[in-house]
C-alpha cells in the first residue's frame, strides 16, 4: 500500500472517458519508487502503462515529446497541479498525490514552537502533497493561541516559483509555517517574504527556522551576480519545456547584454544541467530563462556563475 493517494479510480475513469490505452506515467524522482502497484492496477484494467525515467520538476515540465515518441494517448502527471492554462499537446491527468499520514503530532509540535516564539498569527502554506493538512495545522495553531491565516485564492498552495499564497497575506501575519518535506518550497517562501518562515517537515519529523538557510542562499546568489559582472561572454539558456519556454525574454536579455558591450549567445536546452551546458566553454557566465529556481538550486554544480532572469536584471544595473 502506497503512502500517497494516486487516485487510481479517477485516473481509470479519465482514461476510459478519453479513449486512452497507452498511458505515460510521469512523476518526480521521490515518487517513482511508489508506482509499482499503480502501474500493475492500470495494466490489470487493460491499459498499456509506461513510466518515464526522466526527471520531473513540476507541472511546467510535461513529458509531451516523450509521450508522442512512445505513442502514448495520455499522460498521468503525478505530484503536481496543472501549471499552464494552455491546452496540453497530449491529454494530461494531474494527480497531486496527497501524502497519507497522521500529522497531528507534527501540527501540535509546530503550533507549540510558534506560540513559544511569541507569534500571535501565522500564515499557513504547503506543497502539493501536504496542502490537505492545512486545516489540521490551522486548528492546532488556534488551539495554541496563534491565529491561522490561509490565502483563499490559492488555498495555501505554493510551488517552487509561485509563492503568491504567502505574499498575498504577508501583511496579515507575524510569521509563516510551511508544511512539506525538504527545503525547496520552504526556501522559496522564505525568499519571497520578509517575515520569519518555519518549515514543518513530516519526513524528518522536525520544525525548523528557515532564516539561516535563507541567509546562506542569498549570500551565494549575490556572489553569482558579482562574479558575472566580470564576464565578457554570456550564454542565454532557453529551456525547451512547454511551461518554461521564453524566447522573447531570451532575445531581450541577449540584446540588453550586447548593449552593455558583452557578447551573448542563445542556447536551447531541454535540461539546463551542467552536464548539458559544460561544452559551451566560451561562455563566462550563464543566464537561465526558464524556471527561476534552476540557477540558485544548481549553482553548486556549475563552476561559473549562473543567473536567473531576475538576477540578470540586477546584473544589468551594475554593468
Overview of this protein structure:
36% of the residues lie in helices and 21% in strands. With 319 residues, the protein is an alpha/beta fold. It has a five-stranded mixed sheet, with helices on both faces. A four-stranded parallel sheet has the order 3-2-4-5, covered by helices on one side. A four-stranded parallel sheet has the order 13-12-14-15. It has helices spanning 8-17, 29-32, 36-44, 64-69, 104-116, 134-143, 164-167, 184-192, 211-228, 247-259, 274-277, 294-298, 309-318; strands spanning 4-5, 22-26, 48-51, 74-78, 92-95, 98-99, 121-126, 147-149, 175-179, 196-201, 206-209, 233-239, 263-269, 285-288, 306-308. It folds into three domains: 4-97, 3-Layer(aba) Sandwich (Rossmann fold); 104-209, Diphthamide synthesis DPH1/DPH2 domain 2 (Rossmann fold, 3-Layer(aba) Sandwich), CATH 3.40.50.11850; 217-318, Diphthamide synthesis DPH1/DPH2 domain 3 (Rossmann fold, 3-Layer(aba) Sandwich), CATH 3.40.50.11860. The mean pLDDT is 92. Helix 5 (104-116) crosses helix 6 (134-143) and helix 9 crosses helix 13 (309-318). The relative contact order is 0.10.
Amino acid at each position: 500500500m502506497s503512502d500517497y493517494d494516486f487516485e487510481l479510480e479517477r485516473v481509470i475513469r479519465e482514461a476510459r472517458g478519453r479513449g486512452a490505452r497507452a498511458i505515460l506515467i510521469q512523476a518526480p524522482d521521490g515518487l517513482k519508487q511508489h508506482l509499482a502497484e499503480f502501474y500493475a492496477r492500470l495494466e490489470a484494467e487493460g491499459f498499456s502503462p509506461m513510466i518515464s525515467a526522466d526527471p520531473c520538476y513540476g507541472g511546467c515540465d510535461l513529458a509531451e515529446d516523450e509521450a508522442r515518441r512512445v505513442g502514448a494517448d495520455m499522460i498521468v502527471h503525478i505530484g503536481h497541479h496543472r501549471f499552464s492554462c494552455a491546452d496540453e499537446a497530449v491529454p494530461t491527468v494531474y494527480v497531486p498525490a496527497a501524502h497519507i499520514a497522521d500529522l497531528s503530532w507534527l501540527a501540535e509540535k509546530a503550533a507549540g514552537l510558534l506560540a513559544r516564539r511569541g507569534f500571535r498569527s501565522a500564515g499557513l502554506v504547503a506543497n502539493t502533497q501536504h496542502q490537505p493538512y492545512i486545516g489540521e495545522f490551522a486548528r492546532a495553531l488556534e488551539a495554541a493561541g496563534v491565529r491561522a491565516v490561509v490565502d483563499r485564492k490559492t488555498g495555501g498552495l505554493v510551488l517552487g516559483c509561485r509563492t503568491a499564497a504567502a505574499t498575498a497575506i504577508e501583511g496579515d501575519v507575524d510569521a509563516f509555517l510551511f508544511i512539506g518535506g525538504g527545503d525547496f518550497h520552504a526556501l522559496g517562501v522564505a525568499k519571497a517574504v520578509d517575515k520569519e518562515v518555519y518549515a514543518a517537515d513530516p519526513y524528518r519529523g522536525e520544525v525548523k527556522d528557515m532564516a539561516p538557510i535563507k541567509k546562506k542562499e542569498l549570500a551565494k546568489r549575490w556572489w553569482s551576480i558579482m562574479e558575472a559582472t566580470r564576464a565578457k561572454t554570456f550564454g542565454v539558456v532557453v529551456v525547451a519545456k512547454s511551461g518554461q519556454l521564453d524566447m522573447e525574454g531570451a532575445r531581450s536579455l541577449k540584446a540588453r547584454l550586447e548593449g552593455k558591450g558583452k557578447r551573448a549567445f542563445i542556447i536551447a536546452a531541454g535540461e539546463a544541467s551542467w552536464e548539458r551546458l559544460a561544452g559551451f566553454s566560451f561562455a563566462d557566465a550563464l543566464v537561465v530563462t526558464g524556471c527561476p529556481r534552476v540557477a540558485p538550486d544548481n549553482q553548486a554544480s556549475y563552476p561559473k556563475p549562473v543567473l536567473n532572469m531576475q538576477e540578470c536584471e540586477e546584473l544589468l544595473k551594475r554593468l
